[in-house]
Design a protein that fits this description.
Elements lengths: L3 E6 L4 H7 L4 H4 L2 E4 L1 H7 L2 H9 L5 E7 L3 H9 L5 E5 L4 H13 L3 E6 L7 H7 L4 E5 L10 H12 L3 E5 L17 E4 L1 H4 L4 H16 L1
Parallel strand pairs: 1-2, 1-8, 2-3, 3-4, 4-5, 5-6, 6-7, 7-8
The structure holds ribulose-5-phosphate.
């Protein structure tokens, strides 16, 4: 399975996010993400605006819901994303409530893996019907991607989870995951801050094609 390329719009204004999507970026990526920073800056309505502007493009609302799953899950789901995120530390009751809201509107829940979580947690999450996880290296964590991270990603894949990777991922990091059945690679700064984001999207896509065949 070849990973999809997802752009994280962690811009702090919608105007800036829409500029990021110019120059072939929106057309070149497989998935657009309304990033946590953008949702915090502009409100959840930004998800609906992106939905209207890009009706055919898979859309992620990365709000990393931590509590009040029914209310927050409902507020996000009604904006029409294809995927919506919940943080791993949330109570399983919250995850179930978010999933119910997502299911009612045809969206899929993804669990963001940060900080403390165990491979064992996958069993309970699968029982909730959640099979998507995002392996996330925090932008505030020291160092870069390590073989320990890659081993964890491999273990999650082998447990049958749909695994997305993110957190400081750019062209150079793609090789670390070569051949693993990864669902998507999320790139934020490496695409947004590129001199020519449209060209960088194409370079990343070509590298994915090379590495995954
Ligand atoms: C931050 C996020 C980011 O969207 C994700 O980590 C991608 O950003 P970058 O590639 O800039 O690290 O979820 O909470």
């Amino acid at each position: 399975m070849k990973p999809m390329l997802q752009i994280a719009l962690d811009n702090t204004s919608l105007q800036d996010a829409l500029k990021t999507l110019e120059g072939g970026v929106a057309q070149g990526v497989d998935i657009i993400e309304a990033g946590t920073l953008l949702i915090c800056a502009e409100g959840v309505g930004v998800v609906e605006k992106l939905r209207r502007l890009y009706p055919a493009k898979p859309l992620v609302a990365d709000f990393k819901i931590a509590d009040a799953g029914k209310v927050l899950g409902g507020l996000i789901a009604e904006k029409g994303p294809d995927y919506m995120t919940v943080i791993c530390a949330a109570d399983n009751g919250t995850k179930a409530a978010v999933k119910a809201q997502a299911d009612a509107r045809g969206a899929t829940v993804q669990i963001e893996l940060y900080g403390r979580w165990e491979l064992e947690d996958m069993k309970a999450w699968k029982e909730l019907g959640i099979t998507h996880v995002i392996y996330h290296r925090s932008r505030d964590a020291a160092g870069g991607w390590s073989q320990t991270d890659v081993a964890c990603v491999r273990a999650l894949c082998s447990m049958g989870m749909a695994v997305t990777v993110t957190g400081g991922v750019g062209y150079e990091e793609l090789e670390l995951f070569a051949g693993l059945p990864i669902f998507a690679v999320i790139c934020g700064r490496s695409l947004r801050d590129a001199a020519d984001p449209g060209a960088e999207v194409q370079r990343m896509k070509e590298r994915i094609d090379q590495l995954w065949g």
